[in-house]
């Protein structure tokens, strides 16, 4: 344990934000380096390695939590940011391209947006009394951010194809949200003392400040759930647009260099004369 826990926008949090932004930049850079069919297997392997790494990190968290005697149903690894780790390990081994795209689209888009949103409200990082768990949480989400940026650029999902891929990812998100919500209500009914809150959808939470404060108190739960789904759709689009715009600007810069290359060569030849 530590005497002073990390606080929102304190030194630890700011360092994590800086590293996360660097992860975005590295993801975009390596995505560009490994673009095209020639690098497909390498991209797939990288995502799979990250998938197994995330599973290992999550296993460490579970074991550590059990060892310190803090285990309960909240330890179930089925939150928005943890579900991508169940998809990534399969990417390298899938042969059918359409199925592979469905599998990697979810962690690339939803995982990226969820991890970016986490940077604004890192509850898992600041509420734990154990520094190792704060570091674990930071590393887990930074890895998701790298995977998202790398995947969007490397698999060329920053265009119309990306919109289609995101649509598939969103369908998976809706299905998983329905499973999480149903499980929350069933478990809470039979085990009233539990604090299990998969996808943070149970009505007593406060993970999504805006809709929890201004929507949930005034509408029936089904309406709140639909607003939650719409909010997450917008969240993914907003955070993905950061990578989309970065990729667009990089392409524009590269095209400009290609266009000016003959002039530069002509100028170099003129200087030689």
Supply the number of helical segments: 8
Mean pLDDT: 90
Low-confidence stretches: none
Helix-strand pattern: HHHHHHHH
Strand content: under 5%
User: Roughly how much helix do the residues carry, as a percent range?
Assistant: over 70%
| Whole-number tally of structural domains | 1
Largest sheet: none
Number of strands: 0
Q: Give the C-alpha Rg.
A: 21 Å
Going by helix content, strand content and strand pairing, the class is mainly alpha
From the N-terminal CA to the C-terminal CA, the straight-line distance is: 72 Å
> Which outline best applies?
globular
Describe the model:
The structure is a single chain. 70% of the residues lie in helices and 0% in strands. With 273 residues, the chain is mainly alpha-helical. The chain has one domain. It starts with 10 loop residues before the first helix and ends with a helix.
